[in-house]
Amino acid sequence: MTQTVAEAPISTEREGARPEQQSCGGRVPILTTHALTKQFGALRAVDELDIEVCKGDIFGFLGPNGAGKTTVIRMVLGLIHPTSGHAEVCGHRVPGEMQGALRHVGGFVDDPTFYPLMNARRNLRLLGSMTGPVSEERIDEVLDIVDLRDRAEDRVGGFSHGMKQRLGIAQALLHRPELIVLDEPTSGLDPRGMKDVRELIRELGASGTTVFLSSHLLHEVEQVCTRAVIIDRGKVVVQGPVSELRPQSDAVKVLTADQGKAADTLRAQFGAGSVLEDEGFLIVQAGEDAVPEMVRRLVADGVDVRAVVPAPEQGLEDFFLELTGTDDAGRAAPAKRRAGLARVLHGGRR
Amino acid sequence: MSPAAAPPAAHGSTGPRMHGHAWGSLRREWIKLLFQRRSYLIWGGAFLIPFLIALAFYLTRHNPESGGGGPAFVEGITSNGMFVTLAALFLLIGFLLPLAAAMVAGYMIAGEAELGTLRIVLLRPTGRGSFVLAKWTIAMAYLGFGFLLMLASGLLFGGIFFGLHPIVTFSGTTVGVWHGLGLIVFSILFGLAGMACIVSMALFFSTLTDSSLTALIATIVIYIVITVLIQFSYFDWLRPWVFPYYLQDFTNFFRDPIYWRPILKGLGVFAAWSGVLTFAAYLVFRRKDVLS
Questions:
Q1: Among A126, A147, A180, A207, which would you mutate to test the B interface (most chain B Cβ atoms within 10 Å of its Cβ)?
Q2: What is the pLDDT, as a whole number, of residue A20?
Q3: Do A82 and A110 reside in the same domain of the chain?
Q4: ipTM greater than 0.95, yes or no?
């Protein structure tokens, strides 16, 4: 509760300026984007995006639908050309040195697709041979990793969506790339498959492989990733270590006999800018040190205080929704909420 | 999934070496073609049509009302099986062969985009230029194999039904069977060169769209429009510049001496059309945003 986010090495765009590049803390940056921008007609899908993925990261790439995640991945992998800006992938400037970069990268964008009349092994052999020689042993190895060895001779056309996802991971691993880019790899998998893929991603990270994981499953990112970025409308909203990404809330829940009067007192005498009601409690931004003073003011004003407890920390999911500021219908979150969040992000006091 | 299986080490492994030999690219594209059902349909047609021509002429050989139309070698089939391949080429080069060429080349890039494999293939370190070139080469190789089947089928069934004999040229001289076979092979190669224009055009459209059908239709429509336009005397000025005008000039191989001028002019026009369109395909594909 005492640590403010201002102390954590995360950056945001809440104050209008582009966030400073994150330091990899002695580690080598393996994927960086520099003011990467993509314009489709009138739509600015990606807007001067700066992200930095460090070697060994399992990097979560989060954003709501239409935030520009896939466009960024396509630019980083050379499938589409940026309108301006560039990326650096494994030391190669993209799009200029795309072929050099792709020798160190494996992955897939959207759903992995294969030649339906070929079997899994032949697909891997064909795709693998485009990067360099691939032995049958290596093909067996990656098929083992994704648990498709016994289906190696079956036509991919007959594979389920989940099996194709796994085969997509297998082809990404073929050449032991330094960087693996996975676009929603657990999409369409059953719970067991999802668990296995996450486990595999963790193991890849543990072995030193950098993983760039695009996902809309926030708990997946929380479980698997070491660092993450959240983007919205093509811009970085926040990026940093996942453990520090979630704001450290200094809110407390206050239960009194007269919530209305208590709220007035807190606003008028305690200077609380934001007093919200939540399930019978008042939520007040008050750090640990400020609680005694707050209680004294309430009691002095004749309000019986029955309980003061820490407000639970926000989950990354709530945080994500707050940051991206959209509800299911894509409507913007109330400005007050967003402003309050910005305060939290910057560690500001009331 | 076997999470326990150790994932590969990221470093210290033998790094991926550049293996993008032209031969490797061509081999991969050829394998892809072999794993498409339509490939066998077109090849089957190329083999079947000379047989059907030979059979039709064989069944109607005693009918005094049959025959008529086309150059002498079409009517000469009943007396010499050597002409079956030439008759097939003459009959097909106007529409069916361009259609087949447009189908194959139109699918090359747009078909992969349709299937979704384009985005996974382009994540491999293959240059887009060599990718386009490999596609063009394989489309031509595919058609070349189709022409070879047509040649083989024509000779086989022509020989079975009518026998293979020395050829009487349009100039009235006679050339031996092997000489005649050489002229037929040259005719086939000339037809193939003409199809390079269609392949390049379809490949160009294939880079513009994510629908192979659209690429096919665009190519055929343009081909038909050109072919129709040059039928009108008003467009006489256009004829020397458009490739459909030269497609049947392989018949000039059957003059003695060979009438090279229209043949060489035709080859020049084929090269120009094919070169420009293939380069245009490369330019478009090099900057294409792959969104499929």
A1: A126
A2: 43
A3: yes
A4: no
